[in-house]
Design brief:
Alpha-Beta Plaits, 6 helices, alpha/beta, 4-stranded antiparallel beta sheet, 249 residues, Rossmann fold, binds ribulose-5-phosphate, 7-stranded mixed beta sheet, 22% strand
Length: 249
């Protein structure tokens, strides 16, 4: 299959997962908006539903890019404030294991994504089928790192077996990519992560690591489009046993 054809299929899965997530939004909800291309489809569709008068919601975005998109499609935005909680956050993921433990942060928004996921009653993940994995770790695990601490963080990650690389800004190479907070992003190539809980504890203990991209026990469900199927996964349910929205019960 040609690369462009594959990209088209993956894109189609992302769009279908995002469209399905719109059915999970009810009138009056406070919604967290994720980051990345799948979340962007969701934001676009949410904006269209609002403009058509089908829904009223207020939202907060997990990145400046998503905030700009949300504003451009007419989603009313709320600034962070004490006591603010979200009924639902809809976000993408880089890897999803059978427990719905996630690797996130491919787009560099892991800190704000984790803040909103934690401030939400329900985190719904939307993804194409390439994101489903039996075990996390093939996708490099992102860290957000305070610039001063970088050399020591790289040493500590290497000691954990993570082969770290500092992310480069593709448009301004060789300058490093910066998060929305102005911190560095370090991608850690672990290849396999058999114990995400243990690794999360080890990474949290490194001074200068602001946040890591392991999302443990946060996702309540994932909508994954797999060719013509639309699967709804819950923690611990194998994809083969997931609810398939494209089939009649
Ligand atoms: C950004 C993220 C994204 O949700 C993740 O990278 C998935 O992106 P996409 O929907 O473009 O595949 O974590 O920090």
């Amino acid at each position: 299959m040609a690369n462009s054809e594959l990209r088209g299929l993956v894109d189609n899965e992302k769009r279908r997962a995002a469209a399905q997530a719109l059915h999970w939004v009810s009138d009056g909800m406070l919604v967290g908006l994720g980051s990345g291309s799948t979340a962007a489809y969701f934001i676009q569709l949410l904006g269209e539903a609002l403009q058509a008068g089908k829904l009223r919601v207020q939202a907060t975005a997990t990145s400046l890019a998503s905030e700009t998109l949300a504003r451009s499609v007419g989603v009313p935005l709320l600034a962070p404030r004490r006591g603010l909680r979200f009924d639902l956050t809809v976000d993408g993921a880089d890897e999803i294991d059978p427990q719905l433990t996630l690797i996130k942060g491919g787009g560099g928004a892991l800190l704000r994504e984790k803040v909103l996921a934690t401030a939400s009653d329900y985190l719904l993940i939307i993804a194409d089928s390439s994101k489903l994995v039996p075990q996390l770790g093939q996708f490099p695990l992102p860290l957000e790192v305070v610039p001063f601490a970088l050399p020591w963080v790289l040493d500590a990650v290497a000691q954990l077996g993570g082969e770290p690389t500092v992310r480069v800004d593709k448009k301004k190479a060789p300058q490093p990519a910066l998060s929305d907070q102005g911190n560095l992003l370090v991608d850690c190539h672990f290849r396999s992560i058999p114990d995400p809980t243990e690794l999360a504890l080890q990474l949290q203990a490194i001074p200068g690591v602001v946040e890591h991209g392991l999302f443990l026990g946060l996702a309540r469900a994932a909508i994954v489009a797999q060719e013509e199927k639309l699967l709804v996964l819950r923690p611990g349910v194998a994809p083969a046993d997931a609810v398939d929205f494209t089939k009649l019960p």
